[in-house]
Specification:
9 strands; alpha/beta; 18% strand; 247 residues; two-stranded antiparallel sheet; Rossmann fold; 7-stranded mixed β-sheet
């Protein structure tokens, strides 16, 4: 993950800001935790500003884009967090676990260093073929390594799982964010800050952009996806998982 984000993360903060609806869900899931560890913290999105937060981020490029008043950050990996058991009231990780080289170990670490609860915002890969972009334009997505949502839940030790529907005007520009704004995927800056585009072969990405542009111009995209234009939000497979711990 470090090498990937040292390469693609240079404009990350320009399109990957917080969405207030997700921020509210994450902060509510943290409950009354005062001391929080944010793992795979990136530029600091979704970190509570009214609590004591420590961030873990292996990429120097991402660490450099954190706000001057952001929580202190250390260079470390999710798989081997340099903290004792139950060091934090809560841990959190937001759309980062799919990049961890030892994903299962990282998911277990989230629970090990937490005293009350661990909070994970992640993606259910069974939704790949439900999303027009990955279904119709990025077939290589299916071959990328990953885990099922059941495997994630098992390694994480999940207590509860909630779907997080994505609104049509979502502000955090991750993969599914522009489901009703397809023109956004033609923007190289938008694509640069969505990691899947960097994980696929450049020729497939170029073909995706060319075909999507043609379908938008011809009206073929609107014809195939006309039902989406009437929706305000959509379940794209994003899940908020919580593991409650006993002390």
């Amino acid at each position: 993950m470090t090498e990937l984000y040292d390469t693609i993360g240079r404009t990350y903060a320009s399109t990957r800001g917080e969405d207030p609806r997700l921020r509210a869900r994450i902060h509510a899931a943290l409950g009354d935790a005062r001391r929080v560890l944010n793992v795979g913290a990136g530029t600091g999105s979704y970190e509570p500003r009214d609590r004591e937060v420590v961030a873990v981020e292996p990429s120097a490029v991402m660490r450099a884009q954190r706000r001057p008043d952001a929580a202190p950050v250390i260079a470390a990996s999710a798989e081997a967090l340099p903290f004792a058991d139950a060091s934090f009231d809560a841990t959190m990780a937001v759309l980062t676990d799919h990049h961890w080289p030892e994903r299962a170990a990282g998911l277990r670490e989230l629970g090990r260093v937490a005293r009350r609860r661990a909070v994970l915002f992640t993606f259910d890969a069974s939704f790949i073929d439900a999303f027009w972009l990955t279904r119709d334009y990025l077939p290589g997505f299916r071959q990328l390594p990953g885990m099922t949502i059941e495997e994630i839940a098992g390694h994480f030790g999940v207590t509860s799982v909630e779907p997080v529907p994505i609104a049509h005007d979502w502000r955090d520009g991750f993969l599914f964010a522009f489901w009703r704004r397809p023109e956004a995927y033609l923007d190289p800056v938008v694509r640069a800050n969505i990691s899947v585009f960097a994980r696929l072969h450049p020729e497939e990405v170029a073909d995706c952009v060319e075909r999507l542009r043609a379908d938008l111009q011809s009206g073929a995209w609107a014809e195939r996806n006309r039902g989406l234009l009437e929706l305000d939000e959509l379940d794209g497979g994003y899940r908020l998982m919580v593991r409650e711990l006993t002390t």
